[in-house]
Amino acid sequence: MPRIFFYHNVQDRLRAACALIARTYAQGKDFTVFVPDPEQAQFLDRLLWTQPPLGFLPHCRADSELAAVTPIIITGRMDAPLLQSERLLNLGSVAPDHLERFQNLIEIVDQTEEDRAGARLRTRQYKEMGYPIQFIDMSKR
Question: Which of 17, 36, 139 is nearest to 80 (CA)?
Fold first, then answer.
């Protein structure tokens, strides 16, 4: 059963995602990033090439030949086979399917009312599924 973590009150979801991915990668851990919006996926891809400013986070799309040897995978589909199952970062606006494949699900919520409303809905869904949820207020960090 996955544990759910909501990182909320961030200024910019995609930049916060990059920072979280960088910290996790520095610990030697893999990441699957669910980004159903192709424009957002492309922007995230570019950010991962330049963030941190003097670094590079090794990543690729799930359908790449290099996916089997790449620690950070970007995907727009949850029904495809995924190579790692430890953590999933949801950058979509709905709860992703097939959560049971992961040990941890991470949600990043910015300060817009639209994003907060979507996060409240997903929180209710996860609670109804019986998943344990932890909230981390990023404005206090």
Answer: 36
H runs (alpha helix) in 27-112? 38-50
Question: What domains lie within the chain, and their CATH numbers?
Answer: 3-140 (3.40.50.10110)
- Number of Cβ within 10 Å of residue 6's Cβ equals 21
CB-based contact 106:32 (threshold 8 Å): no
pTM listed for this prediction: 0.91
**Which of 48, 32, 42 has the alpha carbon at shortest distance from 101?**
32
The whole-angstrom separation of Cα 133 and Cα 113 is 21
Q: Is the pLDDT of residue 13 over 90?
A: yes
